[in-house]
Amino acid sequence: MAKPVNKFKNFHSGYVKKTITVNTKIPKIWRKISNITNLSGWVIDVKKTIFLSKKKRGIGAIRKINFKDGNIVEEHIVRWEKGKCFSYIAVSGLPLRVYHATISIKSLGKKSARISWESYMNSKKMTKKEFEEFLSFIEIFYQNSLKNLKSELES
Prior knowledge:
CATH topology: Alpha-D-Glucose-1,6-Bisphosphate, Chain A, domain 4
Strand order of the largest sheet: 1-7-6-5-4-3-2
Number of domains: 1
Distance between the termini: 57 Å
Strand content: 35-45%
Mean pLDDT: 95
Largest sheet: 7 strands, antiparallel
Number of strands: 7
Structural class: alpha+beta
Radius of gyration: 17 Å
CATH superfamily: START domain
CATH class: Alpha Beta
Oligomer: single chain
Number of helices: 2
Helix content: 10-25%
């Protein structure tokens, strides 16, 4: 007898965290990641990013990211600690009710640091399998983007 497939759609929560060690100084890392509309070259599949706010840095800055697949995500900066971290929320463009992410830098010495990209999310109504597939996609997205960032920073 076949196992029943759970097609019940519900809300799901999840957490993703990826880190990478980079052999460069924190100010160089911060200059790169805090330029929140210059994502091409390190964040995978980004076509174009523009500001939707007059503010370009810090809490209240808003960006719109156009991805190569046609998806458009709007994000608002909600935390900003210069040289250390920033957090943002996505308000549209993802199959989520809540998406809160933080990119942070931790010194490991004079010329070495750990960059972390982590997020909490809560889905729109979907099956558990659909949500697990989305979490897996985000993990791969973060991992590949961080590898690109490391390559750019160390070159």
